[in-house]
Amino acid sequence: MDLQQETINRRKDYAREWYNKNKDKIKERSAKYRKGNKDTIRDKKREVRNNNKDKISEEKRKYYLENRERELKKANNYYKNNKPRVANARLIRLFGVTVEEYDSMLEAQGMSCAVCGSTDTKTLGRFCVDHDHATGGVRGLLCSKCNFGIGNFNDDPEIMMSAAAYIKRSR
Question: Is the pTM of this model over 0.70?
Fold first, then answer.
């Protein structure tokens, strides 16, 4: 081994020994820095993420494809263990309504569909949150049949009235 390689190896050994002796000091100093510079660290991480979005997306996609079964199992376990939390997050994300608000709406409706009065929730296991697609405002809670019906009529009262008149004529 030549002199240059020996020097490099000695320096590596020294650095490794020094690190092992001072590990606690290093961790303490790092923690203190992170605590005092949260905003700077957050901003740097955000900048790195913004500058590397495509690369990060590709890495995540590649990881998911390589570990698909494991990731699906993890997601299913999370869902099973956190059903109320998942339901609350879904309601908030889609409709801006919490589980508590959903429950109070259901109580106000007499624990039944706002249109037909049915208490049947067998199809989906819950009532659907009916909302105005134009404004996003929540109108009420419906059974799946009424929700699908209103949706198929494109939320148009004129079409619904026409359909009702049609049914009445044929009786």
Answer: no
